Amino acid sequence: MTPTASESHERWEGTVPDALAGERLDRVLAALVPDLSRSQAQRLLRQGRCSVDGIALKPSDSVVAGARIILSITAPEANVQPEQIPLAILYEDDELLAVNKPPGMAVHPARGTPSGTLLNAICGYLGEGCRPTLVHRIDRDTSGAILAAKTVVAHRRLKEQMDGGGLKRAYWALVWGLPEPLRGRIDAPIERARGDKTRMEIRDGGKFAATRYRVIGSGNWEGEAISLVEAMLETGRTHQVRVHFEWIGCPLLGEQVYRGKRGQATPGEAQLTGQALHSRRLGFTHPATGEAMSIEADPPAEFAAILDALSLG
To answer: 0.85 exceeded by the pTM?
Structure first.
């Protein structure tokens, strides 16, 4: 089989060889498409970006020899209007771009935020002809390091690292109270809240979610302890850090959704754009060179001011 692709690798086409007849479609794609893992193939299939003889199939469907496969590889978010918005560049080469996202900026266009997002800014910075894709995402009010791939191959390889746990993400969080023990692991399944699509909750039967953490330091603000915690994600569930720390009784400062029992505003919270959560460090293997990479982002001014006030800076 000889696959064809455009120069930008946006479209892959090929036929099923006799050796793979009767196999599941996700396995066939992983075997035939360069640098495509089975989990990535499943994701593309669920997004409806593959057809077999003109028909959309499920990952588990078997295929016959000679069936024609057409696969759209480029992520849909690549078609974004470029905008000239200042960016804080942490690292850049021909394959990657890492930026320090400010709090209050959405990462990609969506209903209600069609423009002014991080992806709009990245497209404007890179200019015409470059179609970046985000490797991971963080909440609008979360700040810090976020990684974008400039090529389809880089994106696939980095997503594969993230799916396999090879892309390490460490966050700084300011939380009420002092977590006990000072170094530990929160293992609690997360699922979307019943009757409220904007919230997540700890629930038996939810998706496995685990966060390792260590307390960096603790201070006192108006008679109550506030701790700076480093949280390392083992999984990447929606709102994971926010939900996990609320669950152990240490909700994040500035948190408007998962506040636990602490509903009283403080002067410090009023200075925050949102929850005091910052993507501090990314660790991964460079998709082209194989080099071990570590990228760090300084926290925003309002976060840093609280650190100084607590003598944690």
So the answer is: no
